[in-house]
Amino acid sequence: EARVQIITPSDQRHRSTSRSLPVLLNLYAGPNSQLVKDESTIDIAEYLVSSRHYAVVKIDGRGSAGRGWKYRSAIYGALGTVEIQDQIEALKAVLKKHSVFDASRVSIFGWSYGGFAAVKAVELAPESFFKCTVSVAPVANFLYYDNVHFQHSALLMEALQLQDIDFDAMVYPNQDHSISRRTHLYNKMTAFLDNCAKH
């Protein structure tokens, strides 16, 4: 069973002020990683909750850390399978349980392995399940996974073009995988997700 963390705006805790919320699945899903933790963080997800009134969902499914070898080893030799299915199925359960979450306005965001997982989730989920996807510095081909270089993003962009899939891309020259100067990135992400949530 997956661990799930749901972050909602403070005014959503009172039924009299509840309103339909767009949902962002913030995922990593990489081997031996853990996104759901008993600690507070301040990042783009918390900003979207507090300032833009999103519900943010984080899920640790099979392959994640902190639950023993059997749980963690479920993705050994099978990256991009069960850990992605766990994200989709757990999110479906969250949407079913929380009627205030707008299932027609679900977006997904991941960085690094999470960028790969976000794209893979869109591929494996029912059509139109995810309205928009943000994939930052993704792994696109595990043959080149000694590190995550720009080559991965270029491969993903080429694949999207070959499938005639509309996308926007932003390149950050002289920045490494972690993109230390994130103001522009977060502004672009916020505008993109807000536009997605409106339509």
UniProtKB/TrEMBL annotation:
<dbReference type="InterPro" id="IPR001375">
    <property type="entry name" value="Peptidase_S9_cat"/>
</dbReference>
<dbReference type="GO" id="GO:0004177">
    <property type="term" value="F:aminopeptidase activity"/>
</dbReference>
<keyword id="KW-0378">Hydrolase</keyword>
<keyword id="KW-0645">Protease</keyword>
<keyword id="KW-0325">Glycoprotein</keyword>
<dbReference type="GO" id="GO:0005886">
    <property type="term" value="C:plasma membrane"/>
</dbReference>
<dbReference type="GO" id="GO:0008236">
    <property type="term" value="F:serine-type peptidase activity"/>
</dbReference>
<keyword id="KW-0720">Serine protease</keyword>
<feature type="domain" description="Peptidase S9 prolyl oligopeptidase catalytic">
    <location>
        <begin position="47"/>
        <end position="146"/>
    </location>
</feature>
<dbReference type="GO" id="GO:0008239">
    <property type="term" value="F:dipeptidyl-peptidase activity"/>
</dbReference>
<dbReference type="Pfam" id="PF00326">
    <property type="entry name" value="Peptidase_S9"/>
</dbReference>
<dbReference type="InterPro" id="IPR029058">
    <property type="entry name" value="AB_hydrolase_fold"/>
</dbReference>
<dbReference type="InterPro" id="IPR050278">
    <property type="entry name" value="Serine_Prot_S9B/DPPIV"/>
</dbReference>
<keyword id="KW-0031">Aminopeptidase</keyword>
<protein>
    <submittedName>
        <fullName>Venom dipeptidyl peptidase 4</fullName>
    </submittedName>
</protein>
<dbReference type="GO" id="GO:0006508">
    <property type="term" value="P:proteolysis"/>
</dbReference>
